[in-house]
Write a structure and sequence with these properties.
The complex is a heterodimer of chains A (398) and B (80).
Chain A (H helix, E strand, L loop, with lengths): L3 E10 L2 E2 L1 H9 L23 H5 L3 H17 L1 H4 L8 E6 L5 H12 L8 H5 L3 H10 L5 E4 L5 H14 L5 E8 L4 H9 L24 E9 H6 L6 E10 L12 H14 L8 E4 L5 H15 L8 E3 L1 H4 L6 H15 L1 E2 L22 E2 L9 E8 L3 E9 L1
Chain B lengths: L5 H14 L20 H15 L5 H4 L5 H11 L1
Helix pairs in contact in B: 1-2, 1-4
Classes of the chains: A alpha/beta (398), B mainly alpha (80).
Chain lengths: 398, 80
C-alpha cells in the first residue's frame, strides 16, 4: 500500500486567514469567538476573488478555495505546476450543510415575488466546494463532496487517503468547508439545545452548556509518497490511518459509552499500524456539549486504555468554536502543525473539568509535546457528527 | 415594463453584463461575449432581467447563436 503524505495545508478560521494564524494564535491561547459566535472576521472576499468569482460561489465555496490556495502554494504547485497529469488529481471537500445562505436568499426572493436565479443550484449544492477547487486547479480525477455532518471534513480526508492508497488518484486536495452562520441554523441548532446559551466554548469543563457555531475551511494537499519524494517536495507529515464507524443509535445523541467512537479510533490506529501507546497527542472533537465531551472521554479511555491518561488531549473548538463540516479538516491542519512543532495547544477556558472527565485536557496554556526518541510525533484527530458518524485520522509529523 | 428601444435595451444589457463582472471599459456592442468571460449562466441571468424589464422571454435557443453584445440587443429588440 502506498504511503500518503501531506505537502501543504491551508485554513480560513475565526483566528484569521491562514493555517499559521490558526496554529500560532491557538497555541498562544487566543480565542476567535466574539459575542457567542465565531465568524471568519478577517476574511474579505474582495482580497481573494474578482466580482465574477464572488458571484459564482457561496461563501462556503470561497472559504474552501482560499484554504486550497494556501495549501497548493505551500505544496509548490504554483511554481512547479500540478505534479501529475490532471486525471490523476482530484478534490474531496466535505461540508455539513452547503450553501444554506444561497438557498434561503433565493427562497426569500421567491416568496417576495422575485426570481430564483440560475446560480441558485450551482451555488448551494454541497459539492460546490469540491467542484470549484477542481475547476480552479484543473483536477480531472475524483472530485466530490462528503456529507456526514460534523464529521464531514474528517471523512473527506479519510476517503482521500483511500483513493490514493488504492490508486484512484496520486494527489488530492482534501478537506472541509462551512459557512452557515445564518438565523435559520442558529434557530435550528438552538432548538436542539446544542448551542451554548452563554455563548462560551469550554470543552470538558463542568460549566459547558453547548457549542459555539463557527465557520471556516481547511484543506490539505495529500500526495502519494512516491510522487512527493520524486519531485523533492517538502513533506509536512504523513496521513497514516483512518477509521470510520457509526453509532447506529440516535439522530443526534452519541452513545454514552462511546463504543463505536472508540471503534473508529481503534480502526484508525490499526490502519496506521500504531499501538495505542504510540500516540503522543489527541486533537479531540471536544464540542463543549455535555453529551459529546463525556462520550468522547469514554471512547478515548476505551480505545487507548491507561495511555489515554498519559497524553495531552485538547480541543481546537475552545479557540474557534465548532466549524461543523469544516471542523475535522481544520483540526487536521492544526494537528499537522502541532505535531511539527511538538506542541499541544490548550483547551482554552477549561477551569474545572466536568464529572468523570479526568484526562489531561491541557487547560490554560500550550505545552511541549513529549515524544519518545527515535520517531516522529504522532496524533489522532477525532470527529463525530449528528447521525452517529464517527471518523478518526492518524497523523504523523515528517 | 419599459419601452423597447435599441438604446434602452443596449443600456440594460451592458449594465447587466457589468454587474456579472465584465470590465466596464471593455463592454461595447461589438465585444464578443467570450472576451468578457460571459457564459451560459450569465445569459440565463440576463434572460430574467430582460423578462422583468421588457416582458421579453429569451430561451436558450434564442441565445445559442449570439456572439457579441450587440447580438443580444438585436435578439431582444426583434422579439419585442
Amino acid at each position: 500500500m502506498r504511503d500518503v503524505v501531506i505537502t501543504g495545508v491551508g485554513a480560513v478560521t475565526p483566528l484569521g486567514v491562514g493555517a499559521r494564524a490558526l496554529h500560532e494564535r491557538w497555541t498562544a491561547g487566543e480565542c476567535g469567538i466574539v459575542d457567542g459566535e465565531a465568524p471568519c472576521a478577517e476574511y474579505e472576499a474582495t482580497d481573494h476573488f474578482s466580482r465574477k468569482e464572488s458571484r459564482r460561489s457561496d461563501r462556503f465555496t470561497q472559504l474552501a478555495l482560499v484554504a486550497a490556495a494556501e495549501a497548493v502554494a505551500e505544496a509548490g504547485w504554483l511554481e512547479d505546476g500540478l505534479p501529475v497529469a490532471p486525471d490523476r488529481a482530484g478534490s474531496i471537500i466535505g461540508t455539513g450543510i452547503g450553501g444554506v445562505s444561497t438557498l434561503l436568499g433565493n427562497y426569500k426572493s421567491l416568496l417576495e415575488g422575485g426570481q430564483v436565479g440560475p446560480l441558485a443550484v450551482p451555488l448551494m449544492m454541497g459539492n460546490a466546494g469540491a467542484a470549484a477547487v477542481a475547476m480552479k486547479y484543473d483536477l480531472e480525477g475524483p472530485a466530490f463532496g462528503v456529507m456526514s455532518a460534523c464529521a464531514a471534513g474528517t471523512n473527506a480526508i479519510g476517503v482521500a487517503l483511500r483513493a490514493i492508497q488504492h490508486g484512484e488518484a496520486d494527489v488530492l486536495l482534501a478537506g472541509g468547508s462551512e459557512a452557515a452562520l445564518h438565523p435559520l441554523t442558529r434557530a435550528a441548532f438552538g432548538a436542539l439545545e446544542a448551542l451554548s446559551e452563554l455563548g462560551i466554548s469550554r470543552p470538558f469543563d463542568a460549566r459547558r452548556d453547548g457549542f459555539v457555531m463557527g465557520e471556516g475551511a481547511g484543506v490539505l494537499v495529500l500526495e502519494a509518497g512516491d510522487v512527493a519524494r520524486a519531485r523533492g517536495a517538502r513533506i509536512l507529515g504523513t496521513l497514516s490511518g483512518y477509521g470510520s464507524t457509526c453509532d447506529a443509535h440516535h439522530l443526534t445523541a452519541p452513545r454514552e459509552d462511546g463504543r463505536r467512537a472508540a471503534a473508529a479510533i481503534t480502526i484508525a490506529l490499526a490502519d496506521a499500524g500504531f499501538d495505542p501507546t504510540a500516540i503522543d497527542y489527541v486533537n479531540a472533537h471536544g464540542t463543549s456539549t455535555p453529551l459529546n465531551d463525556a462520550a468522547e472521554t469514554a471512547a478515548l479511555k476505551s480505545a487507548l486504555g491507561q495511555h489515554a491518561y498519559e497524553i495531552p488531549v485538547s480541543s481546537t473548538k475552545s479557540a474557534i468554536g465548532h466549524l461543523l463540516g469544516a471542523a475535522g479538516a481544520v483540526e487536521a491542519v492544526a494537528t499537522v502543525l502541532a505535531l511539527r512543532d511538538r506542541v499541544a495547544p490548550p483547551t482554552i477556558g477549561l477551569e474545572e473539568p466536568g464529572a468523570g472527565l479526568d484526562l489531561d485536557y491541557v487547560p490554560g496554556q500550550a505545552r511541549a509535546m513529549s515524544v519518545p526518541d527515535g520517531r516522529s510525533a504522532r496524533a489522532i484527530s477525532t470527529s463525530f457528527g449528528f447521525g452517529g458518524h464517527n471518523a478518526v485520522l492518524c497523523l504523523e509529523a515528517a | 415594463m419599459s419601452t423597447i428601444t435599441n438604446e434602452a435595451v443596449e443600456k440594460t444589457v451592458i449594465e447587466a453584463l457589468i454587474s456579472f463582472g465584465a470590465e466596464p471599459d471593455e463592454v461595447t456592442p461589438e465585444t464578443e461575449l467570450t472576451t468578457l468571460d460571459i457564459d451560459s449562466l450569465d445569459l440565463a441571468e440576463l434572460s430574467q432581467i430582460v423578462d422583468d424589464e421588457y416582458g421579453v422571454t429569451m430561451k436558450s435557443s434564442d441565445v445559442s447563436k449570439i456572439k457579441t453584445v450587440g447580438d443580444i440587443v438585436a435578439v431582444i429588440v426583434a422579439k419585442a
